[in-house]
DNA sequence: TTGATACACATACATATGTAGTAGTATTAA
DNA sequence: TTAATACTACTACATATGTATGTGTATCAA
């Protein structure tokens, strides 16, 4: 259940599996841009580690190549990331928001959406 | 200028210096809760590493103890953290916001504040 | 002044992570 | 059928980080 912390490269690979479905190591590797593409064995090692963490598993073989599938859910993994960051801010979202704004990546639409989501969440809570 | 990435413990120590001002290693160590307090030398090693990264420096001595001061700014270090997280989301704030909301740490006031800040930033940009 | 105590500095070590090479086996194209 | 190719599994290694020990020196209280 408790998904272990995923490293940057591990996460990049998980994203590929979440987006493209089940893939072989080679296919995962070739998803990386030609320039700056890690060696096959780098991807291999990392996928094996993900396997050790229970984040992916082999579902079948094509030829002698194993096909891997994501076991960990995207939302779980991403929530974990944000939670980890938040803990560095003592659980306060406010400074995180400030920096998101500063970075210029937060749009007014994002905010509107967030507000709507938050109101809805509050309602659900109230009814419960 | 370019503050290197700070680890979790390094960041905890920086926070202490930002908040409490200039301190000796012993003082930093004693700021940690009795339960779960790292050894003196653990803090020492970490502060030396921070020094190596240029994030802190010695400003004076009291007895034979060095007093350290934060060189890196809090905002710079925190912005770096958020930027790093954001890069894991391909630069999109929206999913980050969603998780902040899910975590229950984001209040409507936080949103209002963020919106105001964002509008102000937009204005500044427009004038420029 | 001297013994206890605090501190500095160097070194060590395990784990996580990014990175990759190598040996051996399976597959496949000619 | 066999040589080239692909893939697996194992091993290796550097760096970052959390954690700490050991040795020697500086300081201070009695």
Quick structural overview:
2 copies of one chain form a homodimer. Chain A has 128 residues and is mainly alpha-helical. Chain A is built from 6 helices and 3 strands.
Task: Explain the overall architecture.
- The structure is a homodimer of 128-residue chains.
- Chain A has 128 residues and is mainly alpha-helical.
- The first copy, chain A, has helices at residues 8-20, 25-31, 40-52, 74-88, 93-102, 108-127; strands at residues 23-24, 56-62, 65-70.
- In chain A, a hairpin with a 2-residue loop joins strand 2 (56-62) and strand 3 (65-70).
- Chain A is elongated and about 55 Å long.
- The model of chain A has no long low-confidence stretch (mean pLDDT 92).
- The interface between A and B is large, with 38 and 39 residues.
- The structure holds a DNA duplex (30 and 30 nucleotides).
Helix-strand string of chain A: HEHHEEHHH
Largest interface, counted by CB within 8 Å of the partner chain's CB: A-B, 38 and 39 residues
| Biggest sheet character of chain A | 3 strands, antiparallel
Roughly what percent helix of chain A?
55-70%
Tell me the number of strands of chain A.
Answer: 3
Rounded average pLDDT of chain A: 92
Q: What does the overall shape of chain A look like?
A: elongated
- Which ranges of chain A are low-confidence, i.e. pLDDT below 50, for 5 or more consecutive residues? none
- Give the DSSP E fraction of chain A (strand runs of 2 or more residues): 5-15%
Can you list the strand order of the major beta sheet of chain A? 1-3-2
Total helices of chain A: the number is 6
Return Rg of chain A in Å: 18 Å
**For the terminal residues of chain A, how far apart are their CA atoms?**
26 Å
Quaternary organisation of the protein chains? homodimer
Q: What is the structural class of chain A? A: mainly alpha
């Amino acid at each position: 259940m408790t998904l272990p912390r995923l490293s940057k490269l591990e996460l990049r690979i998980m994203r590929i599996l979440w987006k493209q479905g089940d893939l072989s190591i080679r296919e995962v590797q070739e998803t990386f841009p030609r320039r700056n593409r890690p060696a096959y064995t780098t991807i291999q090692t990392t996928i094996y580690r993900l396997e050790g963490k229970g984040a992916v598993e082999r579902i079948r073989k094509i030829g002698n190549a194993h096909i891997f599938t994501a076991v960990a859910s995207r939302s779980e993994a991403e929530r974990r990331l944000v939670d980890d960051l938040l803990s560095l801010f003592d659980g306060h979202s406010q400074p995180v928001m400030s920096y998101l704004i500063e970075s210029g990546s937060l749009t007014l639409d994002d905010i509107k959406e967030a507000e709507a989501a938050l109101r809805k969440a509050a309602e659900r809570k109230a009814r419960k």
